[in-house]
Each structure stands twice: as structure tokens, then as C-alpha cells.
Design brief:
The protein is α+β, with helices and mostly antiparallel strands. The protein has helices spanning 2-15, 25-30, 253-265, 268-284, 288-300, and strands spanning 18-21, 33-36, 42-46, 51-55, 61-66, 72-73, 82-86, 91-95, 101-106, 114-119, 124-129, 134-139, 144-150, 158-164, 167-172, 175-180, 185-190, 194-200, 203-208, 211-216, 220-226, 232-235, 239-244, 247-252. The strands form 6 sheets. It has a 4-stranded antiparallel β-sheet. The longest helix is centred in the last third of the chain and has 17 residues, at 268-284. The radius of gyration is 24 Å and the shape is globular.
Length: 303
């Protein structure tokens, strides 16, 4: 028994930084995107049937919405009021913690064609009006336009928009750009498979297909999480999440950071030396399968 206890301890230590969450693989396989809020809930959006579903950490369904046209989920940082925008329907919806619709804003009644909408808070929305080439600050509570800014750049490939502290953040699949409200470019960086923004207080985060990057204002995009084999990644304030092999994994921020720092601190010579030591130790250790066979043989003899 001691032998098997040692095997268990070894496996636990090797994988304790990673936790598999109990989600049906079919649900995960069909999901186009995944979101995680700070209360442990997981949200899946599927392009197949335009559905948006919320689950608790055990995989139990808490709510579901079905759409007739594609909607884009802005984020789930405030689960009491989740904003969704549809370019096709020209409307924005707000839903509560059970994904029940609490408000709908129809842009067709007041604007020409809205390319993108970003809900700044529970009163104001920033609208990118493609027809008039304007960025509009709109107070939907009292139905008034607060400000309007003309813009020249072409944003046909835009996939996400954010406005924060008088700066406008644009995301296309392969680039990240920052402008001031005069539409003077402040920063630009190339990206691969970008998907959306996430704001954590005054920190802007970019989520791509298999990595998460933190924006260092007008300096760089710093990669804080990456797994080339991931199908989907996301984060909340306490953990990173990834879908890989149609399974959902969770990594605590502390464990992942410690792991990265440990790898960074090792020089190539130290890594090579470690590998050599492991190979040497492996050669000196008995074959595990053979050892297990011998244990079973001894037990079968009643010794």
C-alpha cells in the first residue's frame, strides 16, 4: 500500500496546480466561447444554435437564452447585468443573473447603422455608427446623446471595442489599437486570433484563442497566460480557465504565476542539467511496471 500511496502523492503534486471542472464534454465541444465570473459560474455561447447558457461550478444549468440571430457577449464581470449586442438585430440586451432579459435597446429607432456597441455602465453606451462615421456616447436611461466624435480609420474587421478614461480600444482578429478621442493613434500591436477585451479596474486585458495578455499603457502587451493547445481561454479575478481536449481546466493565478516564475528563473544550462539528472535517476530506478508486477506476484503467493 505504501507504494501506491507514493504514486498517488507524486501524481497529486504534479497536477495540483490544475483542476478539471465537471462539465459534459459535448457541451464544451460545441461552445464557441466561454466566460467565467467571480462567483464561480461558467457561461457558454454556441454559434450552432445561438444559445447562451449559464452553469454553476458543478455543471448545473442556472439559465439559458436562445437567439434567432448572433449576439456578442460583452463580459460577465457584473453577473447581475450582462450586456449582449447584435449587429444583425441592431439592438443591445441586458440580462440578469438568471439570464432573464431586463432591458432591450433598439438602435434602429434612433441611429443609422451601429457597427458596435459597448456598455460603459448601467446608464451609458458607446456606439460606433458606421454610416455617419461617428463614435457616440449615448445615455440610454434618458435617451440622449452625450457626445459625438468623428473618426477616419476603417474598422471593417473590428471584433471588439472598449472606451475607458478617454481612450478608445479597438480589437481586430490580428491587431490591437489604442486611440484618444481625437482618433490619434497611441499604440498598436500585432496579435494572433484575438477575441475580446476584459477590463479589471484600470487594467485592460486582451483574450485570444489560446492566450491572455495584459496591456501596459503605450508600452507593450504582456502575455500572462498561454497554452498553444487550448481551444478557448478566459480568466476571472482568481483563476485562469481553458478548454483543452473538450475538457474544462482551472488554474489558480498564484500557482500559474509560481510555475512561470520558476521556469523563467532557470537558465538553459540549469534546465539541461535537470534533464540529465532526471535521465540518470530514471536509469537508476527500477522499472515501475516490473516492480508492480513483482508486488502482485508476491501478493498472489500470500507472502
Amino acid at each position: 500500500m505504501k507504494f501506491f500511496n507514493l504514486i498517488f502523492i507524486f501524481l497529486f503534486c504534479a497536477f495540483s496546480a490544475q483542476k478539471t471542472l465537471p462539465f459534459d464534454s459535448l457541451r464544451i465541444k460545441e461552445a464557441k466561447d466561454l466566460f467565467a465570473d467571480d462567483y464561480g459560474s461558467i457561461y457558454l455561447y454556441k454559434n450552432k444554435d445561438f444559445s447562451f447558457t449559464k452553469y454553476d461550478s458543478l455543471g448545473n444549468q442556472l439559465g439559458k437564452m436562445m437567439f434567432t440571430v448572433p449576439f456578442r457577449v460583452q463580459g460577465v464581470q457584473n453577473p447581475l447585468s450582462v450586456a449582449l449586442f447584435s449587429e444583425n438585430a441592431q439592438e443591445m440586451k441586458f440580462v440578469d443573473q438568471n439570464l432573464n432579459e431586463i432591458q432591450k435597446i433598439d438602435f434602429k429607432q434612433k441611429f443609422t447603422f451601429i457597427k458596435f456597441a459597448y456598455a460603459e455602465d448601467l446608464q451609458q453606451i458607446w456606439l460606433l455608427d458606421e454610416s455617419t462615421k461617428r463614435l457616440i456616447q449615448y445615455n440610454f436611461r434618458n435617451d440622449t446623446m452625450v457626445n459625438s466624435y468623428s473618426f477616419a480609420p476603417n474598422f471593417d474587421d473590428l471584433i471588439d471595442l472598449m472606451v475607458f478614461e478617454n481612450k478608445v480600444y479597438f480589437l481586430s482578429k490580428n491587431s490591437f489599437k489604442v486611440y484618444n478621442l481625437k482618433f490619434e493613434k497611441l499604440f498598436e500591436a500585432a496579435l494572433d486570433n484575438a477575441k475580446r477585451f476584459r477590463r479589471e479596474n484600470d487594467v485592460i486585458v486582451v483574450v485570444t484563442k489560446n492566450s491572455i495578455l495584459k496591456y501596459i499603457p503605450e508600452t507593450e502587451l504582456l502575455k500572462i497566460f498561454e497554452d498553444p493547445d487550448a481551444q478557448i481561454v478566459d480568466k476571472n479575478s482568481r483563476a485562469y480557465f481553458e478548454v483543452k481536449g473538450n475538457k474544462l481546466y482551472l488554474y489558480t493565478l498564484e500557482n500559474y504565476k509560481s510555475k512561470k516564475e520558476s521556469q523563467k528563473e532557470q537558465s538553459p544550462e540549469e534546465v539541461e542539467k535537470t534533464i540529465e539528472q532526471l535521465e540518470k535517476e530514471k536509469a537508476e530506478q527500477p522499472d515501475i511496471l516490473q516492480l508492480m508486477k513483482e508486488i502482485f506476484d508476491v501478493q498472489s503467493l500470500g507472502i
